[in-house]
Amino acid sequence: MKFLGLNAIFHDPAAALVVDGEVVAAAEEERFSRRKHGKRPVPFSAWELPEQAAAWCLAEAGLKPEDLDAVAYSYDPALVRPGQQGLDERWEDLRTTYAQRAPSFLATALPGLDPAQVRYVPHHVAHAASAGLAAPYRDSAVLVCDGRGEAVSHLAGRYADGELSVLATQELPHSLGLMYEEVTEHLGFMRSSDEYKVMALASYGEPRFLGELRELIRTTGDGGFRVEPIDWAGYAKRLGRGETWSEDHADLAASVQKRLEEVLLELAGWLHERTGERRLTMAGGVALNCVANTRLLAEGPFDEIWVQPAAGDAGTALGGALHLAQASGEPAAPMPGADLGRGWTDEELAAWLGTARVPYERPADLAAAVAAELAADRIVAWFQGRSEYGPRALGRRSLMAHPGRAANTERLNDVKGREQFRPIAPMVLAERAGEIFTRGPIPSPYMLFVHDVRPEWRERIPAVVHVDGTARIQTVDRADDPLLARMLEEFEARTGLPVVVNTSLNTAGRPMVDDPRDALECFGSAPVDLLVLGPYLIRRGQVFAS
After folding, report:
1. pLDDT at 470
2. Closest among 269, 54, 284 to 147, alpha carbons compared
């Protein structure tokens, strides 16, 4: 059977296709529209659908809308409780109206689709399915925590042989995700977009406001929690865009981050007591907080934690489709990886380069050629295979650099046009990771945990070591990505370092590069030395030769 999943109601609109229980394709609308996060999470935008992502998913499988058995829409307007939403209360009826009319909107966006084929999947059930059904095991405890769904902000439950049992939810307005969004905005960043900046800023501060926050943010002993109204200005003055943060702002970020970690530990402890499961699967925007994930694994009761790589709202498209597949009697297969987006053949890439009229070469040994450029301290834009589903660059659409040059942190942040407190990450072969990194899980293919860098390595790879001595690593499995693995080996042969810098191939405020045109435009506008487009290599000096 064929199920299309869609996320549209808040932010990060996306589409995913599941055929006969297998994940075939998944993509975020931002990669097509080139609007970061697809749209802003306001009621006025709720009518916007991931039309381009959905059309691509169908085309990728050679399907038409009328071939679908059902379409999952990851929000159920019947569950909305007026007056309890916790956000945009004056306009919430508009959001609900758009959701109610989504089947008609979808029939217009996807001609041939029968509106009766659209099924509403509760937002947090879709999140849960994106974790519990996509994970590499059938049974697990599942923890979902985000800003909000229809009427709740949290779900705790258990998957047993593919069936979900909901054990606890938390009604709005209490929300850990909305609380983190509020402090994000207070610190001068964009809410529902820049929460990861708060996590990075937290490393520069001390949690000196933690005592007060423990009174305001607390668990209730029944699987839920309370978040009281917080006067953020009482801790640090509100920052406007571009204003410089102070010690107070870093300390506030550190305090909020620590309290979030503590509450998640308590919620996980409650869930473990009631399920006895060894494994925890996680989704929801809060699950993208890799610092909290690492502390959960290190100090919590679960032996294993698996986090869905598109854990934010984009992942509900995948979860909705998997939920319908499971409900139809088709056991959902684990997701095969995060490389579920668009890809191009070598011939198609050569045609793009021909159209762009740029000089290029095809090295006999691409891995060795790129490693040599990186060893010479050049910045490389790397475009290979199908694009990643989710917010992390995982060696498909990446910017790479030498990790042994401390100046490369500032250099890459300048290339991307972003704040200098932002860390950059290392990629490393899975079998070598344990020599360099500790504490976090290995393998760690989706960059959703942080690891301590062993003291003897910190001075050897300073570009990827955050101020607190940690790094958010991506481990590379040579069976899954032999080209990337060979490049890492070739780089080590030249430098003695088995690590390469990996950050997303984009500039600040722009979605990650997705198609060849995006790659060429980014290469043309940012001071990147080399673009690797499939098997082809484009040198900046040749393209812009005077």
Report:
1. 96
2. 284
Q: Are the C-beta atoms of residues 443 and 463 closer than 8 Å to each other?
A: no
Among 360, 368, 382, 378, which Cα is nearest to 534's? 382
Query: Using one digit for the tens of pLDDT, what is the confidence trace for 398-426?
Result: 999 999 999 999 999 999 998 888 889 99
Q: 11, 127, 402, 451: which one is catalytic?
A: 11
Which DSSP state fits 79?
A: G
Task: Return d(Cα 199, Cα 189) in angstroms, integer.
Answer: 12
Joined tokens for residue 465: 């070591």
DSSP class of 256: H
Phi, psi of 392 (to 5 degrees): -100, 135
Can you tell me the distance from the alpha carbon of 48 to that of 15, in angstroms, rounded to the nearest whole number?
13
Contact by Cβ (8 Å): 313, 46: no
Give the separation between CA 174 and CA 316, rounded to whole angstroms.
Answer: 21
* Cβ proximity of 412 and 440 under 8 Å: no
Q: How far apart are CA 150 and CA 166, in angstroms?
A: 16
Active site (annotated) includes residue 323? no
Q: Stretch 423-446: mean pLDDT, rounded?
A: 96
Q: Please tell me the chain's helix, strand, coil percentages from 3-state DSSP, rounded to the nearest 5.
A: 40, 20, 40
Burial label, 479 (beta-carbon count in 10 A; 0-12, 13-18, 19+): exposed
Q: Give me the percent of the chain exceeding a pLDDT of 90.
A: 92
The CA–CA distances, whole Å, from 135 to 151, 157, 300, 339 equal 26, 15, 19, 15
Average pLDDT of span 515-521: 97
Distance CA 208, CA 148 (A): 28
Torsion sign (Cα): 457, 462, 463, 464: positive
The residues pairing with 4 across neighbouring beta strands, listed in sequence order, are 17, 71
**Are 72 and 119 spatial neighbours (Cβ–Cβ below 8 Å)?**
yes
Q: Which helix (H) or strand (E) holds 534?
A: none
Assigned token pair, 244: 């410089």
pLDDT tens-digit profile of 311-370? Answer: 999 999 999 999 999 999 999 999 999 999 999 999 999 999 999 999 999 999 999 999
Closest-CA residue to 536 (of 519, 512, 521, 513) = 519
Measured over the CA atoms of residue 320, residue 325, residue 328 and residue 333, the dihedral's sign is negative
Q: pTM, whole model, 2 decimals?
A: 0.96
